[in-house]
Amino acid sequence: MSEHSSVVVITGASQGIGLSIATHMQALGYQVIACSRHVSTELEALIQKHPNQVTHQVLDLADEASIKACAKAIFSTTSTIDVLINCAGIASGGAFMMSSITEMKSLFEVNYFHTLLLTQYIVKKMMIKRHGVVLNIASTAGILGDKGTLAYGGSKAALIHATKVMAAELGAFNIRVNAIAPTVVQTAMAKQMDPQALATLAARSSLQGDVLPDDVANLVAFLVSDQANKISGQVIRLDKAMPF
User: What pTM did the predictor assign?
Assistant: First the structure.
């Protein structure tokens, strides 16, 4: 499989980590299908600069009908999907006793259930071709037991488990499935976090400096490449040597 003819679907591609991944994958020669609710100014600029290589499809992971419509639209433009990168997600913080079950259900719908629904649609195409790569952007919140991460961390823990199960089941079709679990990445979402929580995480890490969207994108580029063709079912921590 030549990377320069490969098709990659990226969710949450309008900003932050997803946008950085889309930019990196375009630079590597991939045909990029960027999925998001809206087209940001930055994504629009990338599309205009590379109109034959980067396209956009509307995707709202909170809406099951939107997921089905997005998959149908993708299938109308390409018969082959080589890589799926599940990057879209929402965050929510709060103590256990103050967490609304209704809000947690909504968060799990986006971060877990509907992410898996889209993956089921896309993987069907991969199974027919008997090759593909699925990469889930998880979080160290799904591994740690930090206060205030019940809902978000729980959804990412579920996604990590799903990654391992999918890897075990889809390996027979030559489909690799891995997850990246970064610590806090410098995005707009990070700015919503409690400053004390950010300071605690930073103090726990052995390495200094911020984790940037490009750091995640660089790791993505390796894990979806043929250089990583024997790596599957793994959760790669991008956490500056954070002890557990």
Answer: 0.92
